[in-house]
Design brief:
It is a single chain. Helices cover 29% and strands 23% of the residues. The chain is built from 9 helices and 12 strands. It is of the alpha/beta class. The strands form 2 sheets. It has an 8-stranded mixed beta sheet, with helices on both faces. The chain has a single domain, classed as 3-Layer(aba) Sandwich (Rossmann fold), CATH 3.40.50. The structure holds iron/sulfur cluster. Iron/sulfur cluster binds next to loops.
């Protein structure tokens, strides 16, 4: 991207303390830059650390190590109330599950307007007007404000979640599996809504999802995580149609192919073997016990993310590409 860097994570780590000197290595040494108005898709199996990464860069989890910069300013390691107040206007999150992320005892008007009430100087009248306007902008009606979450369908609840995040008019939004809890028939509607809002608001998105086809469709670049580490990043089409890392290869191969005329001509391949425990992370390459191309050094030497010689905008962590 030619636009300036908006957000940068450097060697970010998030470990969860399980007691007795045991730690879940949920996010381990991840670096990522996101440019203004870029959409970066983040994919990987369940438990790969995608959501934890998204929450840690927003300060919803304290960092264990590493740095996050927003517009060049280093973000706090541990957020205080005033930090949330300051950054809520810049960075927001759209959550995975529209059923559980909305307080059932709050009306939709209260849910959507809550951020403004907490983090802005707007009057009650201004908040009411903006809430009504945002409900209409996401395809609902202003007079829905007095209703409760259970009165809405899954797709409508996710629209409410989108309005709740975007009413703050942030520049950067983490979309954490925003469509995975929805019926297939409404997934495309929600993606199209996000796409339209991204364009009209000039948003920058980190789009976390399981569905690689959907991520390829919406993203400029695609990043792949495995067991807390990033293993590949590059232009979304390149990563999807021509994966370099063996994990990306089997992940793409096991992804349902919705389009029979797709350029991606590959047999579906199930990933073999068990994913190691994030508490006892193996030495060397974390994918070694499942990798069809494993070599001796893979069990002892940890591969680093390096740009490919022929594709400098693609980085891969694999000894197949080491010099
Ligand atoms: Fe496979 Fe080795 Fe590459 Fe890991 S480093 S993905 S085990 S070839």
């Amino acid at each position: 991207m030619s636009t300036p860097v908006l957000l940068e994570a450097k060697a970010l780590r998030k470990y969860f303390d399980m007691g007795k000197d045991k730690f879940v290595h949920a996010v381990d040494d991840i670096s990522l830059t996101v440019h203004e108005q870029e959409i970066v898709g983040l994919v990987g199996e369940s438990g790969s650390g995608k959501s934890t990464f998204g929450k840690t860069i927003l300060g919803l989890h304290d960092k264990t190590a590493g740095d996050v910069y927003y517009e060049g300013e280093r973000l706090p390691d541990v957020y205080k109330a005033e930090d949330f107040k300051k950054y809520a206007r810049k960075m927001q999150m759209i959550f995975q599950d529209p059923y559980s992320s909305l307080n059932p005892r709050m009306t939709i008007g209260e849910v959507v307007g809550e951020g403004l009430k907490l983090h802005s100087q707007d009057s009650a009248k201004q908040i009411h007007e903006r809430t009504a306007s945002w409900l209409e902008r996401v395809g609902l009606q202003a007079d829905h404000m007095s209703r409760y979450p259970h009165e809405f369908s899954g797709g409508q609840r996710q629209r409410i979640g989108i309005a709740r995040a975007l009413i703050m008019e942030p520049d950067f939004v983490v979309c954490d599996e925003p469509i995975s809890a929805l019926d297939v028939s409404v997934q495309a509607q929600v993606v199209n809504l996000l796409d339209e809002l991204k364009s009209s608001m000039g948003l920058t998105l980190l789009f976390i999802a399981h569905d690689l086809s959907m991520v390829r469709y919406v993203s400029d670049r695609m990043a792949v995580m495995y067991l807390g580490s990033m293993v590949e990043i590059g232009p979304a089409d390149e990563v999807f149609f021509n994966p370099r890392h063996p994990y990306t290869d089997v992940l793409v191969g096991s992804n349902p192919e919705p389009d029979p005329e797709s350029e991606r001509k590959r047999p579906s391949t199930a990933i073999q073997g068990e994913i190691p425990s994030p508490i006892n992370v193996p030495a060397g390459c974390r994918f070694a016990n499942r990798c069809p191309k494993v070599m001796e050094q893979c069990h002892t030497v940890t591969p680093q993310m390096i740009p490919l010689a022929q594709e400098p905008d693609r980085q891969v962590a694999c000894h197949l590409y080491s010099a």
